[in-house]
Amino acid sequence: MELMKIKYIKTDLFKHISTVFLWDNIAKFIGIITTIILIRGLSQEDYALFTMFGASLALFIGFISGGIRTAYVRFAAEEYSRNKKMPNEIFIISTVLCFTIFLILSPIIILFNKSISQLLFNDNIYSIALYLGFMGAIGFFFIGIVSSYYQVQEKYHNSGFILSFQKLLFFLLLLMLIIFGSLNFLKVAIIQIVLFIVFGLFLFVQILKSELLKNKLNLLINHFAIFLKASSWLILYCICISIFSHLDVLMIGRLKTANDLANYGVAYKYYGMLILALPSIMTVLRVRNSKIDMIESIEKQKEFVKKWLRMSSKLAIPIILIILVASSFVMDFLNGPRYTASILPFKILAVSSVFSYIFAPNISIFISMKKYTILFYFGLTALIINFFGNLWLISLIGISGAALATLFSHLIVNGFSTAYVLLKK
Length: 425
Known about the structure:
Blueprint (H helix, E strand, L loop, with lengths): L1 H40 L2 H40 L4 H34 L5 H26 L3 H25 L4 H28 L8 H35 L2 H17 L3 H11 L3 H4 L2 H38 L7 H16 L2 H9 L2 H26 L1 H25 L2
Helix pairs in contact: 1-5, 1-8, 1-9, 2-3, 2-4, 2-6, 2-7, 2-8, 3-4, 3-7, 4-5, 4-6, 5-6, 7-14, 7-15, 8-12, 9-13, 11-12, 11-13, 12-15, 14-15
């Protein structure tokens, strides 16, 4: 009976990862074509702005809503696995909390984006990218929270379709822009922002109409307090990781030229394609490891990590070796001669992607242990190492230094976090 249950769990987990991976692949395939069009179609100056826009967008999403959405999935998945009923009050609390933060920050970003750009980059050239990135983050928040709502229920087809469909819409709008007009940073950014806001609000309203308003929920203070108490350290961790993930782009913008930023942006885009399966894996593991059987068994957590290390190493390492050999030719063919300086940083980031896959379960295991404080300190350590690594290595060897700083930070922090999980009694 126990053996049958284990087989069912493995099959179920594989099915969920396969479902999310399928939709992620569709989204990423569309994203690859879009990326090549933008790399080829935008000038280096515009692509540098687009790189900063993308980093700002992701940073604001991670800083403001990413942590709260992660906490929502963790908290709601446990409640849903216990009671088989969606804790809709947590959805409303998460939404109100995120939107309140956006409202508080809006006047600061709108009025002082030039001053912020001057402070961060010693130039206000990226002020428009910061401002538009913030506006895009507001729109994407609604898409993200609806996607998280479906992930809690393990409705991965729904969440996957949402993310893939918005990528397809952006691609179609980009084609229309090429056919009927000219391609530049401002037009591309505005199209993406309008799409996020309109599509996101449409999805959010459908959820409210179909589920939440029918339940006649009461937003009680105690729900809010319980959610914050259970999730505050997890939210802080996600903020650290969000800054960590885009610190290289921000520091290149500060320390190097627009040409350097454009080249690193190309390397970073292709690195994102290498880790295209990672969001699928992390999405499923986050929900799976928030269930009761994993939360209550340290031995199951350890066994899961050991099996994952063995399996992922066998798969990831040979694939990355092939990519390292072939990347020089492929990137030169796809990007043209303008971005040859992006090849070495990409190869370094490709090595980093191996460790991202190998250590993928760590975060979800820490979340299942409810070790949020320790998780936050790991995230803070990664951020500090990455900051000083970037400061030293970018000045020393240029944009390849930023890639090395990312690699070393991943190695050190993931190594210690894995050791903690395996040695915990």
